[in-house]
Amino acid sequence: MARADAPPGQRPQNDGASPLAIICGAGSLPFKVAEVARLSGRRPVLFAIRGSADADAVRAFDHHWIGLGQLGRFVRLARSEGCREVAAIGGVVRPTVAQLWPDWKALLMLPRIVAAFRGGDDHLLTRVAAILEDEGLRLVGAHEIAPDILMPSGLLGGLEPSERDRADIALGLSVLRATGPFDIGQAAVVADGRVLALEGAEGTDLMLAHVAALRTAGHIRVAKGAGVLIKAAKPGQDRRLDLPSIGPRTVESATQAGLAGIAVVAGSAVVAEPGRIATLADRSGLFVLGVANDGEPIDGAST
Length: 303
Description:
This protein is an alpha/beta fold. The chain has two domains: 20-147, 3-Layer(aba) Sandwich (Rossmann fold), CATH 3.40.50; 150-291, Cytidine Deaminase, domain 2 (3-Layer(aba) Sandwich). It has eleven helices and 13 strands. The chain has helices spanning 29-39, 55-58, 71-80, 104-108, 110-116, 121-134, 142-145, 163-179, 204-216, 248-256, 274-284, and strands at residues 20-24, 44-49, 62-66, 85-89, 138-139, 154-155, 187-191, 194-198, 228-231, 245-246, 261-265, 270-271, 287-291. Strands 6-13-11-9-7-8 form a six-stranded mixed β-sheet, sandwiched between helices. Strands 3-2-1-4-5 form a five-stranded parallel β-sheet, with helices on both faces. Strands 10-12 form a two-stranded parallel sheet. Helix 1 links the parallel strand 1 and strand 2. The longest helix has 17 residues, at 163-179.
């Protein structure tokens, strides 16, 4: 079995019992993954990102605080904890290279890091993953540890989309399939067959806030209660990193934007607090639907 200090390029195979390193960003999902790992008999070790991770929740687990750019510190601590695998989950605002404050190891790899930043988020994260694996740490998807974090097929809550909504979902999925190869974003807003917004660097919540502002200003003349937020992974995306996600805040933002509902590709997106999402959606009059990539619910999948 390969050791945690395996030579660069030699990827260790996990024995299912070694501690799991979890790079922890914002939100509740890192702690869900950590708890599932703990219940399965693995010791989770959180590497909480300063300025992103919830400090109170982090304290419930073995943890270390790291800054963006502290590659050497992360690798050294992960090895000292006996970690062979690493998962990364939770929101982090993409920094500039100047904001990284790299440590000595990151400085040695600065040409690779700078090259990683010359592209979209998937380009960046895939190259960061390669750097970690060159250091002997096997990257795994958080959903491989905790499959229940994936969006199920069908409804969360009791409201159904209309035929107009389903047509908007299908159009939105087509748009995301077309734009995905350009590594632009993972979300779109479509209403009455018109694309109102496409996610870029601002993220989903700010995109929805922009839609809400356009409605208020009268620049969007679609009736309130029409329009769907659609989220889907990019074609060819590394599924171990940065899957599209929704949570209670997404429902709140979609409500403020005056939308009819949210559609997410089931099995390829992460959902935080599904029970709370269902409650908020019903209270707000929104549907939340897990769909196949052709816009229809996946046959035979559980809801």
